[in-house]
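Ticket closed. Logging final result for Leucine-rich repeat domain-containing protein.
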Amino acid sequence: MTARTLNLGETALQALDPEFRQYAALRELYLHGNQLTALPDWLGEYADLRILDLSHQPLAALPNSLGRLKNLEFLYVSDLAISALPEALGDLESLLYLGATDNGLTRAPASLGRLSNLVELRLYGNKLTELPDSYGELAALRELHLDGNPLERLPDTFDQLDELRVISLRGNALTDFPSQLGRLPRLRQLDLRANRITRLPDLGPEAFPALEKLDLRWLDLSAVPEWVHELQRRDCLVFRTAAGQR
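Final structure:
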């Protein structure tokens, strides 16, 4: 342990002793890989905390007091026993990265749309069927990872994500191609593998102006429209299975 870092990861912790409250000046706290099933509300007293790792343990819920960590920049809450994220996470005004993968999340809180500094959001490996429209307000978002959810559609508001560079949607339940993404000025990578899309829309040649990689593998496409060929002429890598080349 250094003066501003406490690493208790993979130490078989089953509970947090109140004596840990003396470390309220911490900047980094690592509690991953333990046996914690609950967290105390006083965790919200760590006002200077920048990094908090709670991943890989049987936590059944996250306390609302986490929303008091106004300086938190990186939050890792993957591989837990949770089915929801607290709405209070939308109060983490300094958050840059949120990793909440491989949980049983059935819904994503609309409050996350208030995270104006969020650069990367990872929600893959959950049970999400939809995302709130408010996520289109994530003005700083550059990477969005949603693989392995039963998502059926994306919000129309996603055409506002002007800073988005990467969006990964592999193994979802999309039936319609997310045309709104074609208007994003900085999008470089779009992964749509293994969805239920059978038709690509007719888009203009100006679609996806910065795209460098489009992955359409394992889609049963009946035809490939001209804008896809235009992407290839612009040196965008387009991956398709043989069935998609008809």
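The chain has two domains: 1-128, 149-246. No further action required.
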